[in-house]
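We modelled each protein-ligand pair independently. The example shown here corresponds to the pyridoxal-5'-phosphate entry; the chain sequence is given first, followed by the ligand as SMILES.
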Amino acid sequence: MMTRPTWFDTSLEGSLLEHISPADEQGYFVYHLDALKKHLAELQQQDVIKLWFAVKANPLSKIIQVLDNEGFDFDVASSGELTQVLAQGISPDRVLNTGPAKSKQQLESFVKQGVKTFVVESLNQLQWLNEVTIAQKVVTKPIVLLRVQLQWPDGEKNPLGGNSLTPFGLSVSEWQQVQVSDYPALDICGLHIFQWGNMLNNEKMYALWGQMVAPLTQLAKDLGMKLKILDLGGGLGIDYLEKGHSLSWQQIIDDLADIKAQAGVEELWLELGRFAVAECGYYVVPVVDRKVNYEQEQLVLAAGINHIIRPAITEQPFPVTLLRTSTEREQNFDLHGPLCTSMDKLGHLALPQDVEVDDSLVFGFCGAYGFTESMPFFLCHQLAAEYIFENGELIEIRAAQPASTYLA
Ligand SMILES: *Cc1c(COP(=O)(O)O)cnc(C)c1O
Protein backbone atom coordinates (compact mmCIF):
# COMPACT_ATOMS: atom_id res chain seq x y z
CA MET A 1 0.00 0.00 0.00
CA MET A 2 1.53 3.29 -1.01
CA THR A 3 1.96 6.13 1.45
CA ARG A 4 2.45 9.71 0.38
CA PRO A 5 6.08 10.82 0.78
CA THR A 6 6.72 13.65 3.25
CA TRP A 7 7.93 15.97 0.48
CA PHE A 8 4.51 15.88 -1.22
CA ASP A 9 2.14 18.58 0.04
CA THR A 10 -1.21 16.83 -0.35
CA SER A 11 -3.09 20.16 -0.44
CA LEU A 12 -2.01 20.19 -4.11
CA GLU A 13 -3.30 16.75 -4.95
CA GLY A 14 -6.90 17.58 -5.89
CA SER A 15 -5.86 20.39 -8.22
CA LEU A 16 -3.27 18.23 -9.97
CA LEU A 17 -5.77 15.41 -10.46
CA GLU A 18 -8.34 17.80 -11.90
CA HIS A 19 -5.81 19.49 -14.15
CA ILE A 20 -6.50 17.97 -17.55
CA SER A 21 -4.93 20.04 -20.29
CA PRO A 22 -3.93 18.62 -23.68
CA ALA A 23 -1.30 21.38 -23.89
CA ASP A 24 0.47 20.00 -20.83
CA GLU A 25 0.69 16.39 -21.98
CA GLN A 26 4.47 16.68 -22.19
CA GLY A 27 4.91 17.65 -18.54
CA TYR A 28 4.63 20.83 -16.42
CA PHE A 29 6.03 22.48 -13.29
CA VAL A 30 4.00 23.65 -10.29
CA TYR A 31 5.30 25.90 -7.48
CA HIS A 32 3.35 25.91 -4.21
CA LEU A 33 3.67 29.57 -3.29
CA ASP A 34 1.73 29.34 0.00
CA ALA A 35 4.18 26.71 1.22
CA LEU A 36 7.11 28.79 -0.08
CA LYS A 37 5.99 31.88 1.85
CA LYS A 38 5.72 29.90 5.05
CA HIS A 39 9.15 28.32 4.59
CA LEU A 40 10.87 31.64 3.79
CA ALA A 41 9.24 33.36 6.76
CA GLU A 42 10.72 30.65 9.00
CA LEU A 43 14.19 31.22 7.51
CA GLN A 44 13.88 34.92 8.37
CA GLN A 45 13.08 34.30 12.07
CA GLN A 46 16.64 35.23 13.10
CA ASP A 47 19.01 38.19 13.06
CA VAL A 48 22.33 36.40 12.58
CA ILE A 49 22.41 35.94 8.80
CA LYS A 50 21.56 38.27 5.95
CA LEU A 51 19.83 36.16 3.30
CA TRP A 52 20.18 36.54 -0.44
CA PHE A 53 18.41 34.42 -3.04
CA ALA A 54 20.67 32.85 -5.69
CA VAL A 55 18.46 33.64 -8.68
CA LYS A 56 19.89 30.85 -10.82
CA ALA A 57 17.99 28.30 -8.70
CA ASN A 58 14.66 29.61 -10.05
CA PRO A 59 14.31 32.90 -11.91
CA LEU A 60 10.52 32.76 -12.42
CA SER A 61 8.93 36.18 -11.79
CA LYS A 62 6.44 34.85 -9.22
CA ILE A 63 9.17 33.11 -7.24
CA ILE A 64 11.30 36.27 -7.17
CA GLN A 65 8.27 38.28 -6.01
CA VAL A 66 7.66 35.96 -3.06
CA LEU A 67 11.33 36.14 -2.04
CA ASP A 68 11.14 39.92 -2.31
CA ASN A 69 8.08 40.00 -0.02
CA GLU A 70 9.84 37.80 2.49
CA GLY A 71 12.81 40.16 2.75
CA PHE A 72 15.40 38.38 0.66
CA ASP A 73 17.85 40.32 -1.51
CA PHE A 74 19.12 38.94 -4.83
CA ASP A 75 22.33 37.32 -6.03
CA VAL A 76 22.53 37.60 -9.83
CA ALA A 77 25.22 36.10 -12.04
CA SER A 78 24.28 37.40 -15.49
CA SER A 79 22.74 40.36 -17.28
CA GLY A 80 19.63 38.28 -17.93
CA GLU A 81 19.15 37.58 -14.22
CA LEU A 82 19.67 41.26 -13.39
CA THR A 83 17.05 42.31 -15.95
CA GLN A 84 14.58 39.77 -14.57
CA VAL A 85 15.08 40.93 -10.96
CA LEU A 86 14.79 44.63 -11.84
CA ALA A 87 11.66 43.84 -13.91
CA GLN A 88 9.99 42.73 -10.66
CA GLY A 89 10.39 46.26 -9.29
CA ILE A 90 13.32 45.37 -7.05
CA SER A 91 15.79 48.17 -6.39
CA PRO A 92 19.32 47.59 -7.79
CA ASP A 93 20.81 48.34 -4.37
CA ARG A 94 19.36 45.01 -3.24
CA VAL A 95 21.37 43.13 -5.86
CA LEU A 96 24.67 41.31 -5.39
CA ASN A 97 26.64 40.34 -8.50
CA THR A 98 28.60 37.06 -8.43
CA GLY A 99 30.03 34.92 -11.22
CA PRO A 100 33.35 34.18 -12.93
CA ALA A 101 32.52 35.78 -16.31
CA LYS A 102 32.12 39.49 -15.61
CA SER A 103 33.52 41.41 -18.57
CA LYS A 104 34.42 45.07 -18.21
CA GLN A 105 31.36 45.89 -20.33
CA GLN A 106 29.11 43.89 -18.02
CA LEU A 107 30.56 45.52 -14.90
CA GLU A 108 30.05 48.93 -16.49
CA SER A 109 26.47 48.10 -17.35
CA PHE A 110 25.74 46.79 -13.82
CA VAL A 111 27.23 49.93 -12.22
CA LYS A 112 25.20 52.10 -14.62
CA GLN A 113 22.05 50.26 -13.65
CA GLY A 114 22.71 50.98 -9.98
CA VAL A 115 24.18 47.73 -8.66
CA LYS A 116 26.39 48.54 -5.65
CA THR A 117 27.57 45.18 -4.34
CA PHE A 118 30.02 42.91 -6.14
CA VAL A 119 31.74 39.61 -5.46
CA VAL A 120 34.95 39.97 -7.43
CA GLU A 121 36.49 36.75 -8.76
CA SER A 122 39.71 37.83 -10.53
CA LEU A 123 42.37 40.54 -10.54
CA ASN A 124 40.96 41.79 -13.85
CA GLN A 125 37.46 42.12 -12.39
CA LEU A 126 38.89 44.17 -9.51
CA GLN A 127 40.80 46.47 -11.85
CA TRP A 128 37.86 46.88 -14.25
CA LEU A 129 35.35 47.60 -11.48
CA ASN A 130 37.70 50.25 -10.07
CA GLU A 131 38.05 51.82 -13.53
CA VAL A 132 34.36 51.90 -14.43
CA THR A 133 33.49 53.30 -10.99
CA ILE A 134 35.95 56.19 -11.49
CA ALA A 135 34.86 56.74 -15.12
CA GLN A 136 31.20 56.97 -14.13
CA LYS A 137 31.92 59.25 -11.17
CA VAL A 138 29.91 56.98 -8.86
CA VAL A 139 29.32 58.78 -5.56
CA THR A 140 29.09 55.94 -3.04
CA LYS A 141 31.85 53.38 -3.39
CA PRO A 142 30.68 49.91 -4.47
CA ILE A 143 30.93 47.28 -1.73
CA VAL A 144 33.37 44.60 -2.87
CA LEU A 145 33.90 41.08 -1.56
CA LEU A 146 36.86 39.08 -2.86
CA ARG A 147 36.02 35.48 -3.69
CA VAL A 148 38.55 33.06 -2.24
CA GLN A 149 39.18 29.48 -3.30
CA LEU A 150 40.95 27.44 -0.63
CA GLN A 151 42.85 24.18 -0.93
CA TRP A 152 43.99 21.82 1.80
CA PRO A 153 46.70 19.17 1.80
CA ASP A 154 45.18 15.83 0.76
CA GLY A 155 44.30 13.52 3.61
CA GLU A 156 41.82 13.11 6.43
CA LYS A 157 42.03 16.73 7.58
CA ASN A 158 40.86 17.98 4.19
CA PRO A 159 37.37 19.33 4.92
CA LEU A 160 36.37 19.34 1.26
CA GLY A 161 37.37 15.72 0.71
CA GLY A 162 39.28 16.80 -2.39
CA ASN A 163 40.65 19.89 -4.08
CA SER A 164 39.01 20.31 -7.45
CA LEU A 165 40.10 23.49 -9.16
CA THR A 166 37.27 25.74 -10.38
CA PRO A 167 37.10 29.21 -12.02
CA PHE A 168 35.33 30.60 -8.93
CA GLY A 169 37.54 33.16 -7.21
CA LEU A 170 41.28 33.01 -6.60
CA SER A 171 43.72 31.35 -4.25
CA VAL A 172 45.01 33.17 -1.19
CA SER A 173 48.43 33.63 -2.81
CA GLU A 174 46.94 35.29 -5.90
CA TRP A 175 44.88 37.69 -3.76
CA GLN A 176 47.97 38.52 -1.72
CA GLN A 177 49.18 40.65 -4.64
CA VAL A 178 46.43 43.11 -3.73
CA GLN A 179 46.44 45.95 -1.22
CA VAL A 180 42.99 47.43 -0.70
CA SER A 181 44.52 50.94 -0.67
CA ASP A 182 45.40 50.46 -4.36
CA TYR A 183 41.67 50.60 -5.23
CA PRO A 184 40.48 53.90 -3.76
CA ALA A 185 37.20 53.87 -5.71
CA LEU A 186 36.08 50.62 -4.08
CA ASP A 187 35.02 49.69 -0.56
CA ILE A 188 36.76 46.29 -0.36
CA CYS A 189 35.41 45.05 2.95
CA GLY A 190 34.46 41.41 2.61
CA LEU A 191 35.44 37.91 1.62
CA HIS A 192 33.31 35.32 -0.13
CA ILE A 193 33.86 31.59 -0.11
CA PHE A 194 31.66 28.81 -1.47
CA GLN A 195 33.09 25.53 -2.66
CA TRP A 196 30.81 22.78 -1.33
CA GLY A 197 27.42 21.47 -2.46
CA ASN A 198 24.24 19.93 -1.12
CA MET A 199 25.50 19.59 2.47
CA LEU A 200 23.11 17.55 4.63
CA ASN A 201 24.98 17.29 7.90
CA ASN A 202 25.16 20.13 10.45
CA GLU A 203 28.37 18.92 12.13
CA LYS A 204 30.19 18.59 8.82
CA MET A 205 28.96 21.98 7.65
CA TYR A 206 30.11 23.64 10.89
CA ALA A 207 33.50 21.92 10.76
CA LEU A 208 33.96 23.06 7.17
CA TRP A 209 33.01 26.68 7.91
CA GLY A 210 35.17 26.63 11.03
CA GLN A 211 38.27 25.67 9.05
CA MET A 212 37.77 28.63 6.73
CA VAL A 213 37.96 31.27 9.46
CA ALA A 214 41.72 31.30 10.13
CA PRO A 215 42.91 31.46 6.49
CA LEU A 216 40.31 34.11 5.65
CA THR A 217 40.98 36.41 8.60
CA GLN A 218 44.72 36.10 7.93
CA LEU A 219 44.19 37.01 4.26
CA ALA A 220 42.17 40.10 5.23
CA LYS A 221 45.04 41.20 7.48
CA ASP A 222 47.58 40.66 4.70
CA LEU A 223 45.58 42.81 2.30
CA GLY A 224 45.13 45.65 4.78
CA MET A 225 41.38 45.03 4.86
CA LYS A 226 39.07 45.49 7.81
CA LEU A 227 36.94 42.36 7.38
CA LYS A 228 33.36 43.55 7.80
CA ILE A 229 31.43 40.99 5.74
CA LEU A 230 31.83 37.25 5.38
CA ASP A 231 29.73 35.59 2.66
CA LEU A 232 29.54 31.79 2.85
CA GLY A 233 27.59 31.24 -0.37
CA GLY A 234 24.99 28.47 -0.55
CA GLY A 235 25.18 24.71 -0.65
CA LEU A 236 22.72 23.90 2.15
CA GLY A 237 21.35 20.52 1.16
CA ILE A 238 18.11 18.90 0.11
CA ASP A 239 17.40 15.23 0.83
CA TYR A 240 16.94 14.24 -2.83
CA LEU A 241 17.71 10.58 -2.06
CA GLU A 242 15.10 10.42 0.76
CA LYS A 243 17.60 9.08 3.28
CA GLY A 244 16.06 11.00 6.15
CA HIS A 245 19.00 13.41 6.31
CA SER A 246 18.28 17.07 6.68
CA LEU A 247 19.86 20.20 8.08
CA SER A 248 18.46 21.86 11.18
CA TRP A 249 18.02 25.56 10.39
CA GLN A 250 18.15 26.44 14.10
CA GLN A 251 21.50 24.65 14.37
CA ILE A 252 22.79 26.56 11.33
CA ILE A 253 21.84 29.84 12.96
CA ASP A 254 23.62 28.85 16.20
CA ASP A 255 26.68 27.65 14.29
CA LEU A 256 26.87 30.76 12.14
CA ALA A 257 26.50 33.04 15.16
CA ASP A 258 29.62 31.29 16.41
CA ILE A 259 31.47 31.61 13.07
CA LYS A 260 30.49 35.28 12.92
CA ALA A 261 32.02 35.89 16.34
CA GLN A 262 35.17 33.89 15.52
CA ALA A 263 35.71 35.85 12.31
CA GLY A 264 34.90 39.12 14.09
CA VAL A 265 32.67 40.32 11.24
CA GLU A 266 29.70 42.67 11.41
CA GLU A 267 27.70 40.83 8.78
CA LEU A 268 27.40 37.21 7.77
CA TRP A 269 25.75 36.51 4.42
CA LEU A 270 24.36 33.40 2.73
CA GLU A 271 23.00 33.17 -0.81
CA LEU A 272 20.48 30.36 -0.71
CA GLY A 273 19.38 28.54 -3.83
CA ARG A 274 17.92 25.09 -3.32
CA PHE A 275 17.43 25.43 0.44
CA ALA A 276 15.07 28.35 -0.21
CA VAL A 277 13.00 27.08 -3.14
CA ALA A 278 13.55 23.38 -3.98
CA GLU A 279 10.77 21.94 -1.84
CA CYS A 280 8.01 24.24 -3.11
CA GLY A 281 8.31 22.86 -6.66
CA TYR A 282 6.92 19.78 -8.43
CA TYR A 283 7.21 18.40 -11.91
CA VAL A 284 4.26 16.41 -13.27
CA VAL A 285 4.66 14.16 -16.29
CA PRO A 286 2.56 11.39 -17.92
CA VAL A 287 3.71 7.83 -18.56
CA VAL A 288 3.81 7.11 -22.31
CA ASP A 289 4.90 3.46 -22.29
CA ARG A 290 5.67 0.57 -19.97
CA LYS A 291 7.69 -2.51 -20.85
CA VAL A 292 9.92 -5.21 -19.41
CA ASN A 293 13.41 -5.37 -20.86
CA TYR A 294 15.87 -8.06 -19.72
CA GLU A 295 13.69 -8.50 -16.61
CA GLN A 296 13.84 -4.79 -15.76
CA GLU A 297 10.57 -2.87 -15.58
CA GLN A 298 10.87 0.31 -17.64
CA LEU A 299 8.61 3.35 -17.85
CA VAL A 300 9.01 5.80 -20.71
CA LEU A 301 7.80 9.31 -19.82
CA ALA A 302 6.55 12.12 -22.06
CA ALA A 303 9.55 14.22 -21.03
CA GLY A 304 12.83 13.65 -19.22
CA ILE A 305 16.07 15.59 -19.16
CA ASN A 306 14.67 18.00 -21.73
CA HIS A 307 12.62 19.36 -18.78
CA ILE A 308 14.68 18.30 -15.73
CA ILE A 309 18.32 17.48 -16.43
CA ARG A 310 19.66 17.49 -12.88
CA PRO A 311 19.37 13.71 -12.28
CA ALA A 312 21.55 12.98 -15.33
CA ILE A 313 24.35 15.38 -14.38
CA THR A 314 24.44 14.68 -10.64
CA GLU A 315 23.26 11.06 -10.39
CA GLN A 316 20.76 12.27 -7.79
CA PRO A 317 17.20 11.59 -8.95
CA PHE A 318 14.34 13.78 -7.86
CA PRO A 319 12.03 11.65 -5.69
CA VAL A 320 8.81 10.47 -7.35
CA THR A 321 5.24 9.48 -6.46
CA LEU A 322 2.22 8.32 -8.47
CA LEU A 323 -0.51 10.93 -8.93
CA ARG A 324 -3.41 8.73 -7.79
CA THR A 325 -3.91 6.27 -5.00
CA SER A 326 -3.00 2.64 -5.44
CA THR A 327 -3.25 -0.31 -3.12
CA GLU A 328 -0.57 -2.28 -4.97
CA ARG A 329 2.88 -2.99 -3.58
CA GLU A 330 5.80 -0.92 -4.84
CA GLN A 331 8.65 -2.09 -7.04
CA ASN A 332 11.57 -0.37 -8.77
CA PHE A 333 11.20 1.01 -12.26
CA ASP A 334 13.78 2.54 -14.57
CA LEU A 335 12.34 5.93 -15.54
CA HIS A 336 13.33 7.07 -19.02
CA GLY A 337 12.54 10.21 -20.98
CA PRO A 338 11.84 10.55 -24.72
CA LEU A 339 15.26 11.71 -25.95
CA CYS A 340 17.23 9.35 -28.15
CA THR A 341 20.20 9.16 -25.80
CA SER A 342 20.80 6.82 -22.87
CA MET A 343 21.52 9.91 -20.75
CA ASP A 344 17.80 10.59 -20.63
CA LYS A 345 17.02 8.77 -17.40
CA LEU A 346 15.31 10.27 -14.36
CA GLY A 347 16.16 7.45 -11.97
CA HIS A 348 15.58 3.92 -10.75
CA LEU A 349 12.76 4.50 -8.30
CA ALA A 350 9.92 2.72 -6.49
CA LEU A 351 6.32 3.06 -7.73
CA PRO A 352 3.18 0.92 -7.28
CA GLN A 353 3.16 -2.20 -9.45
CA ASP A 354 -0.02 -1.14 -11.25
CA VAL A 355 1.40 2.10 -12.69
CA GLU A 356 0.26 2.22 -16.31
CA VAL A 357 0.25 4.19 -19.54
CA ASP A 358 -1.46 7.60 -19.10
CA ASP A 359 -0.84 7.69 -15.35
CA SER A 360 0.95 10.84 -14.21
CA LEU A 361 4.03 10.90 -12.00
CA VAL A 362 4.93 13.74 -9.65
CA PHE A 363 8.58 14.51 -8.94
CA GLY A 364 9.51 16.48 -5.79
CA PHE A 365 12.12 19.14 -4.92
CA CYS A 366 11.82 20.55 -8.46
CA GLY A 367 11.50 24.19 -7.32
CA ALA A 368 15.28 24.63 -7.77
CA TYR A 369 17.43 23.72 -10.78
CA GLY A 370 14.43 22.55 -12.80
CA PHE A 371 13.02 24.47 -15.76
CA THR A 372 16.03 26.71 -16.55
CA GLU A 373 18.69 24.07 -15.94
CA SER A 374 17.23 21.67 -18.52
CA MET A 375 18.10 21.01 -22.19
CA PRO A 376 14.70 21.73 -23.74
CA PHE A 377 15.62 22.02 -27.42
CA PHE A 378 17.02 18.56 -28.10
CA LEU A 379 14.66 16.51 -30.32
CA CYS A 380 12.25 19.42 -30.76
CA HIS A 381 9.99 18.70 -27.81
CA GLN A 382 7.75 21.21 -26.06
CA LEU A 383 8.93 23.71 -23.47
CA ALA A 384 7.26 22.86 -20.17
CA ALA A 385 4.48 25.01 -18.76
CA GLU A 386 4.94 26.61 -15.32
CA TYR A 387 2.11 27.02 -12.83
CA ILE A 388 1.84 28.47 -9.37
CA PHE A 389 -0.44 27.14 -6.66
CA GLU A 390 -1.69 30.01 -4.52
CA ASN A 391 -4.73 30.27 -2.22
CA GLY A 392 -5.77 26.80 -3.28
CA GLU A 393 -5.72 27.63 -7.00
CA LEU A 394 -3.55 26.45 -9.88
CA ILE A 395 -2.62 29.43 -12.10
CA GLU A 396 -0.66 29.25 -15.34
CA ILE A 397 2.33 31.63 -15.53
CA ARG A 398 4.01 30.21 -18.63
CA ALA A 399 2.09 28.21 -21.21
CA ALA A 400 3.71 25.15 -22.79
CA GLN A 401 5.32 26.05 -26.13
CA PRO A 402 5.80 23.76 -29.13
CA ALA A 403 9.12 23.57 -30.97
CA SER A 404 7.77 25.78 -33.77
CA THR A 405 8.08 28.75 -31.35
CA TYR A 406 11.85 28.39 -31.06
CA LEU A 407 13.01 26.66 -34.26
CA ALA A 408 14.39 28.76 -37.10
C1 LIG B 1 24.59 28.55 -7.13
C2 LIG B 1 25.10 29.50 -6.13
C3 LIG B 1 24.48 29.58 -4.87
C4 LIG B 1 23.33 28.71 -4.44
O1 LIG B 1 23.68 27.38 -4.32
P1 LIG B 1 22.66 26.34 -3.63
O2 LIG B 1 23.46 25.11 -3.51
O3 LIG B 1 21.50 26.19 -4.52
O4 LIG B 1 22.28 26.92 -2.31
C5 LIG B 1 24.98 30.53 -3.99
N1 LIG B 1 26.01 31.33 -4.31
C6 LIG B 1 26.62 31.29 -5.50
C7 LIG B 1 27.74 32.22 -5.79
C8 LIG B 1 26.19 30.37 -6.44
O5 LIG B 1 26.80 30.31 -7.63
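The chain is about 25% helix and 25% strand.
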